[in-house]
Design brief:
Number of strands: 2
Enzyme class: transferase
Order of helices and strands: HEE
Distance between the termini: 14 Å
Largest sheet: 2 strands, parallel
Shape: globular
Organism: Lactobacillus helveticus CIRM-BIA 104
Mean pLDDT: 82
GO molecular function, one term: protein-N(PI)-phosphohistidine-sugar phosphotransferase activity
Keywords: Transferase
Strand order of the largest sheet: 1-2
EC number: 2.7.1.69
Helix content: 10-25%
């Protein structure tokens, strides 16, 4: 299901270290990264490619 949802997204909002709300956004991706792992740095117009392994 995740793969089909990712392919259907035209754009997405990325949330880091935020709890998933009771009514999550349809185009949101919620991350809970390891605290030892640095957060990624994004700039305007960066392409983010999802690759299912």
């Amino acid at each position: 299901m995740v793969e089909s949802n990712m392919k259907a997204l035209g754009h997405a909002t990325l949330f880091f270290n935020r709890p998933i709300p009771k009514a999550p956004l349809a185009n949101a991706v919620y991350f809970d990264p390891d605290v030892a792992q640095p957060l990624p740095t994004f700039k305007v117009d960066d392409d983010i490619v999802y690759e299912h392994i």
